[in-house]
Each structure stands twice: as C-alpha cells, then as structure tokens.
C-alpha cells in the first residue's frame, strides 16, 4: 500500500510539472485546487473527489495533448517503434492493436520511459470478460453472457496472434510477448482510453483516467438544475447575468469531457454540482451491466441502463416493426414500451391488427383481457427462464456472502445456509484455483464474484418483472370484476 501511495505521489508531481491542471487561476501547472485523489470503498475504490464545492458545467481538469498517450505521440518519441509500426507488413493491424503493441513496448522501457510515473499507476490486472477463465464464464449461467465472454476471449487471442510478428520485430521481452501481457494491454485500452477525433484507438489520459463511472440518467435533469441555479444567481439582480451567461455557455459543452482543439487539451467538466469530499464521476456511455463487464471489468448494483431480453417466437417479431433490440425488460422490471406494444398486437387476432395498429403504437391498452393475457405471458416467460438456471435468486444472494468470506482457500467455510448446488460451485472454484496454481492470487475469486453478481442482477430484473406483471394483472382482474357488477 505504501509503495502504491508513493507511485501515486510521483504521478501527481509529474502531472503538475508537465502541465496537467485542475485550475484556471493557478497557471499551467496546478493540481489539488478542484480535485484530489481519494479512496471510496463503496463506490469504485480509488477515484477523484471534490477538493472544494464544484458547480455543474465547471471546468475540472485540463490535460494537454502533448501528455496524452496515443499511437501518434508514442511513435513521435521513438524512431525504432515508428519504423517498425510503419512497416508495410503490419498495415493490416487495427489502431487498437497498434496501440496495445506500443503500450507493451513502452512498458518494456521501464524507468527510462517518459510516461513511467503514469505507467506505474496502471492496474496490474483487469476483470474484463476476455480475462475470464472457463470456470468464471460458466458461472455467468446465461447463454448470451457465456457466449459474450467466449467471443471476447477468442477475439483477444486472434488479435494477439496477428500482432505477434510486430512484437517480435520490436524484440519485446519474453514476458511482454505472452497472451497474458496482451490481455493486460488490450484491457488497459478497453477500460481506460478516451475518445479523440484523430485516432479510432483513443488515448490514455494521465490523471483523467482516475475518474470513476456513473451511469447516465442518475442525476437530476439538466433543465431542472439549470433553472434552480439561474434563479439563485440572478434573484432579481442584473449583476448576476454575467454568471448566468457563463453557466449557459458551460451547459452547452459536453459536460463529461472531450478534446478541445482551441486549447489543444482534453478537458473535463462537472456533470453536476458536487460538495467538497464527494466523489466526482464521469459518464462515458450508456451500458448494460454485461457491457460494463465486457469493456471495463466492473458492474453497477443499480444500473438504470441494464436490461434483460426474453426469447420471443418468430411470429411475435414479424407482427411488429420495432427493432429487436427495443424489445426488453427494464432494470426496474417493467417491460419496455416496444415490448408491450408488440405483444398487444401479437395477442390480437390477425384480421383485427390493422384496425388497432395506431392504438398499439400510441402505447394504449387494447382491452383489459388483452393486457392481462400479455402480462401473464411475460410473467410465465420470466418464470421459465429462472427455473432453467441452476441456482435461484436467493441462492446467489447467499453465495455472494459466502464468496466474501473466502480469505484462505484452505480455511473451512460455514456453508449451512447455501444450497447444495452452491456448495458444489464453491468446491469447484477451489479445485479450479488450486489446479491453476493461483494459491497466492485471488484474481479468479474476484472474477467469479463478478459473474455471480451479474447473474444475480439479471435474475433480479426477472423477479421484479414477475412481481410487476402479477400486480398489474391482479389490479386489472379486480377492475374487470367491478365493471361487470
């Protein structure tokens, strides 16, 4: 821990020296004015906190282009690397593959690398889907998730083999030529790069990649926030209008961050107002939990963008014009607008569909009987999916608690509360780890935990959907009975 703290201190000192700044009033080299690095155990671990009260839309951090680690900047600093990468034989490699090779090459330089203080602060391992072993993949239980993990590993392996000739030409150290090293480099790029307009691979951004993630949609609406702030600023005093104009200008920016050509730097802005000490978060896209796991190696307990797709018969898809990706169950258990519309039309006799189509696409119920039928159908589908999985929602909740208690593989565990299937899974985990010789490493445990967390969140959506559908059906049943009296 002390060594890690030392690396962090050197990173921040180096960052300030080369022009990374979190202030517009302290010159070109200032850190600690708006942000400080803190630990948030319940929200992502190490991250950036507010060093003072921050206002929505305010500039938080500016990282000069010269500091960004990109394929272009790496090639400019090393002639050998540039000549090898530009060799005609390697033109088939993607920008991301080339950046991964460049990152491994730079790591091989050790302390003589210009980016050494930054490289020493990168995680030594990641938990993206491509790093999942066979045990962790199967622990996901759901076929779509298992297939996503398998595809991610196969893709990583294929790209590694493609880039092997270039890495050998650069004479990388043996440990940097391995598939494990390639997974580390590609995971670094997948989970930490930021978008830049001139390179599809993106850039690695010192200090800027310390922000943790917040899902879009968690904050109050921007209009509501703007209205309150403008009222506070003006309050019948025209002297506040300059601040209002600045705030409106700030609100037009991408509030999370982006590369700004006029200042030749990557700039980050507050997506909402923060009190001193709060963790400052970035939203870098709308992702389901499976997508977060695939690209970033984590998931959210409450992810408003999560969803579950239930299998639908071909005739259901053909009865509507909605795209398949819009037919899902929301994270709160409610069927999507498109799914309800599709099922309402499908449950209507074919010779009547044309006459009620406009009502369906307006989101209207067709009849109490139609609504009860489709909600019961959804509830039954969700129940069937849950029954076909090897553990229940309750089993997984208890299993997560048991996983947290595994500190030593040889230590006995109290397993009275978990099902026999879960006990078998715990024994299989221990056998799997011992077989791999990972007694001193609990990386596999963390990936297993993530797999169980993911399937638990998946099952919770289905359980909540069943409750929602059954509740609405009960209400409609009583409503129908009352109308018939």
- Quick one: overall form? globular
Determine the mean pLDDT.
83
Give me the side-by-side strand order of the main sheet: 3-8-7
Q: What is the end-to-end distance?
A: 72 Å
- How many DSSP-defined strands? 11
Number of helices: 18
Beta fraction: 5-15%
The major beta sheet can be summarized as: 3 strands, antiparallel
The first-level CATH class of the largest domain is given as Alpha Beta
Radius of gyration: 26 Å
CATH superfamily of the largest domain: Rubisco LSMT, substrate-binding domain
Task: Indicate the CATH topology of the largest domain.
Answer: set domain protein methyltransferase, domain 2
Sequence stretches where pLDDT stays below 50 over 5 or more residues: 218-254
Assembly state: single chain
Overall structural domain count: 3
Helix/strand-derived category reads mainly alpha
Helix-strand string:
HEEEHHHHHHHEEEHHEEEHEHEHHHHHH
CATH architecture of the largest domain: Alpha-Beta Complex
Helix content: 40-55%
Protein name: SET domain-containing protein
GO molecular function: protein-lysine N-methyltransferase activity
Domain SET: 33-285
Keywords: Methyltransferase, S-adenosyl-L-methionine, Transferase
Feature tags:
single chain, mainly alpha, set domain protein methyltransferase, domain 2, 3 domains, 3-stranded antiparallel β-sheet, two-stranded antiparallel sheet, 11 strands, 9% strand, methyltransferase, Rubisco_LSMT_subst-bd
């Amino acid at each position: 821990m002390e060594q890690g703290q030392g690396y962090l201190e050197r990173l921040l000192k180096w960052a300030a020296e080369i022009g990374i700044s979190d202030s517009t009033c302290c010159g070109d080299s200032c850190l600690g004015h708006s942000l400080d690095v803190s630990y948030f155990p319940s929200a992502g671990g190490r991250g950036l906190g507010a060093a003072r009260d921050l206002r929505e839309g305010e500039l938080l951090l500016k990282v000069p282009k010269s500091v960004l680690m990109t394929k272009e900047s790496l090639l400019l600093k090393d002639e050998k690397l540039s000549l090898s990468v530009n060799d005609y034989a390697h033109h088939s490699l993607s920008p991301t593959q080339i950046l991964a090779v460049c990152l491994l090459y730079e790591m091989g330089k050790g302390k003589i690398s210009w980016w050494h203080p930054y490289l020493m602060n990168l995680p030594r391992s990641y938990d993206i889907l491509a790093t999942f072993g066979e045990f962790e993949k199967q622990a996901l239980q759901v076929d779509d998730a298992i297939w996503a993990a398998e595809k991610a590993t196969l893709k990583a392996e294929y790209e590694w083999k493609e880039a092997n000739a270039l890495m050998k030409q650069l004479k990388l150290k043996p440990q940097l030529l391995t598939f494990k090293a390639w997974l580390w480099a590609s995971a670094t790029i997948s989970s930490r790069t930021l978008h830049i307009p001139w390179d599809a691979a993106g850039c690695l951004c010192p200090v800027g990649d310390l922000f943790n993630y917040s899902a879009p949609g968690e904050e109050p609406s921007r209009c509501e926030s703007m209205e309150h702030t403008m009222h506070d600023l003006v309050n019948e005093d025209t002297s506040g209008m300059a601040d209002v104009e600045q705030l409106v200008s700030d609100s037009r920016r991408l509030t999370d961050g982006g590369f700004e050509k006029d200042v030749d730097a990557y700039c980050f802005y507050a997506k909402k107002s923060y009190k001193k000490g709060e963790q400052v978060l970035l939203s870098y896209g709308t992702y389901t939990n499976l997508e977060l796991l695939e690209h970033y190696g984590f998931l959210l307990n409450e992810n408003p963008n999560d969803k579950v797709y239930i299998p639908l018969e071909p005739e259901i898809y053909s009865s509507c014009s909605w795209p398949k990706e819009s037919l899902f169950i929301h994270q709160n258990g409610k069927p999507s607008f498109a799914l309800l519309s599709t099922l309402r039309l499908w449950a209507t006799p074919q010779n009547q569909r044309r006459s009620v189509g406009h009502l369906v696409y307006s989101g209207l119920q067709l009849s109490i009987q139609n609504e009860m039928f489709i909600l019961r159908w959804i509830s039954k589908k969700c129940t069937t999916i849950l029954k076909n999985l090897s553990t229940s929602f309750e089993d997984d909740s208890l299993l997560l608690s048991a996983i947290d208690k595994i500190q030593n593989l040889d230590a006995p565990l109290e397993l009275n509360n978990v099902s026999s299937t879960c006990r078998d899974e715990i024994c299989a985990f221990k056998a799997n780890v011992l077989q791999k010789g990972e007694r001193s490493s609990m990386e596999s445990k963390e990936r297993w935990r993530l797999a169980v967390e993911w399937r638990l969140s998946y099952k919770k959506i289905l359980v909540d959907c069943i409750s929602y559908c059954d509740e609405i059906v009960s209400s409609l049943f009583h409503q129908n009975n009352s109308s018939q009296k």
